[in-house]
Design brief:
Elements: E1 4-10, E2 16-24, E3 33-36, H1 39-42, E4 45-52, E5 58-68, E6 75-83, E7 96-99, H2 100-103, E8 108-113, E9 119-124
């Protein structure tokens, strides 16, 4: 029942990885994503470490990541925390977290009820 967002990350070697991320509007600060600690998959360039409080605590590695959202034409470059996410209570098949700083790049975002009675997360650029 959690809101998720599909994100295509551009790998440094030129490939792509499609990831399902949990939407967490309570995840604030200068970083947009929390992703597994896999620099070969995500890191375009290193960034300054960051001190975290919350589900992840202490000094965490950060990297610049690049990607795009399926269905939207714009690409992004953003900061991500690359960490051991095994401690996070993520739903099955969810690779990480997308936070409020990333969502603010869009004109409108949220969830709406579908015709079938469920919920669907949306972004509008």
């Amino acid at each position: 029942q959690a809101d998720v967002l599909e994100v295509i990350f551009l790998k440094p070697d030129g490939g792509e990885l499609t990831a399902t991320l949990l939407v967490d509007s309570g995840f604030t600060g200068q970083t947009c994503f929390v992703l597994p600690d896999d620099k070969d998959t995500f890191e375009q360039s290193p960034a300054r470490e960051s001190q975290l409080l919350g589900a992840l605590q202490g000094v965490q590695n950060r990297s610049v990541v690049k990607g795009r959202i399926p269905g939207l034409s714009a690409q992004f470059e953003a900061l991500a925390i690359l960490a051991d996410i095994s401690k996070l209570a993520l739903p099955p098949n969810v690779l990480g977290i997308v936070g409020l700083r990333f969502l603010r790049q869009f004109r409108r975002w949220g969830a709406e009820r579908t015709v079938a009675g469920g919920w669907q997360f949306f972004l509008e650029s």
